[in-house]
Write a structure and sequence with these properties.
Blueprint lengths: L14 E4 L12 H7 L12 E9 L2 E2 L4 E4 L4 E5 L9 E3 L10 H7 L6 E6 L3 E6 L5 E4 L1 H6 L8 E4 L4 E5 L1 H26 L12 H10 L4 H6 L2 E6 L18 E6 H13 L15
Parallel strand pairs: 1-10, 5-6
Antiparallel strand pairs: 2-3, 2-4, 2-13, 5-7, 7-8, 8-11, 9-10, 9-12, 12-13
């Protein structure tokens, strides 16, 4: 993602690019993996049975069943071939779709060797592009490293590039931070509604309640998105492309990461909320 000079490479205003040569820079070396291995675990919870699940889509339609990757299988390949899938390989070529469009049919021909997902340490994830064509990734970790707001950029990974796309500690910190912000906003809103907020802004508690309601608008779905990666084969999306969202790309996958979802559940269960509906439990089989 970084050039030797340390700046992010951009193709358009919202698409960051990553080439195979960047994998030779110190920033992308596996020294960071060794550093993570020497750090204490983020949580003492036992790891989930599956470290991730991969769901394949064509446009906005899921195709086939969700593929589960066991915790003991730290490397999984998602490719476009028609071989039978195995515990460490998800083959998309054999999946049928009666509603498949010509655009998806053509794009599937170029998936080829696809991508390799590597679990490193307790929950970091790296991606290697094995295909002869670029893939496009939605990654909050890469957004942060590129100095962009979460969800503001699309990351184009060229063939042979190997980059980190998810950092468990960073994600856990963001979950804790956003959950605390939401909890504080809810408490402040309750105080405003009851008229306990001093000062001229407290007009019977109405005005501050309205503004704080917006501040408290961080839901479980927002936190869950921090634990999910999305990757499109061949075609990009966003402001630099004719497809505004990933759901308009011909073939793409969603990768749910179970360790961060498990930590999210732990954080939510620890929050002293009076309304049970604000909590959620993620069942990770």
């Amino acid at each position: 993602m970084f050039s030797p000079g340390g700046s992010t490479m951009w193709a358009g205003s919202n698409t960051a690019t990553y080439t195979g040569q960047m994998g030779n820079n110190n920033f992308w070396s596996n020294s960071s993996v060794q550093h993570e291995a020497n750090m204490p675990p983020v949580s003492n919870l036992p790891p989930p049975e599956y470290w991730c699940t991969v769901t394949y889509f064509e446009l906005d339609q899921q195709v086939g069943e969700t593929f589960k990757v066991p915790g003991g299988c730290q490397t999984v390949t998602v490719d476009g071939y028609t071989d039978p899938s195995s515990v460490s390989r998800f083959c998309l070529g054999k999946l049928s779709n009666v509603h498949r469009t010509e655009m998806s049919e053509r794009a599937r021909l170029y998936i080829g060797k696809g991508v390799q997902l590597n679990l490193c340490g307790e929950g970091d994830v790296w991606i290697r592009c094995l295909s002869n064509h670029s893939v496009f990734v939605k990654s909050y970790y890469l957004d942060r490293e590129a100095g962009r707001a979460p969800g503001d950029a699309v990351h184009k990974i060229y063939p042979n590039a190997y980059i980190k796309v998810f950092d468990l500690r960073q994600c856990h910190f963001q979950i804790q931070q956003q959950a605390a912000t939401s909890l504080a906003a809810i408490a402040a809103q309750a105080a405003a509604v009851s008229g306990n907020v001093p000062g001229p802004a407290s007009v019977g508690g109405i005005a501050p309640a309205i503004s704080l309601s917006a501040a408290a608008g961080i839901g479980v779905d927002d936190l869950r998105r921090l634990c999910v990666l999305q990757l499109s084969f061949v075609k990009g999306w966003g402001p630099d492309y004719p497809r505004p969202t990933i759901k308009e790309t011909p073939c793409w996958i969603e990768i749910q990461l179970h360790r961060p979802l498990q930590l999210l559940d732990e954080v939510l269960q620890a929050m002293p909320l009076s309304e049970p509906r604000t909590r959620a439990t993620f069942v990770l089989h």
